Amino acid sequence: MDFTILSIIMLAIGIYGLLTNRQLLKVFISIEMIAIAATLNFVMLASPNGLSQALLIIAFSVDTAVSAVILALLVIVSKRYGTGDLSKIISKQETEESEDEVQ
Prior knowledge:
By secondary structure, this protein is mainly alpha-helical. The protein has a single domain (2-102), classed as Orthogonal Bundle (Helix Hairpins), CATH 1.10.287. Helices cover 86% and strands 0% of the residues. The chain has four helices and no strands. Helix 2 (24-44) packs antiparallel against helix 3 (50-81). It is elongated, with a radius of gyration of 18 Å. The relative contact order is 0.12.
């Protein structure tokens, strides 16, 4: 029961961070908190047979692959726009689009 409460708290922290942060890295950390809460539920509800353990290994593998892709995209976006703030990135992207429309 304690792990269920921990999982719910981690999910709440992740959702709160996702809704309130504007920095790309903090948004990524919030998404990872949500994924860890889901993985914790897999661990909690694991039955003694091997199927739940296999699903857990798949969940870890997918989460790791997604994390690597997201981190690579964060590096590319921060190099292109020179910032990690979402509002500044959106405003710079809108100015680029408006300049393209003028041309």
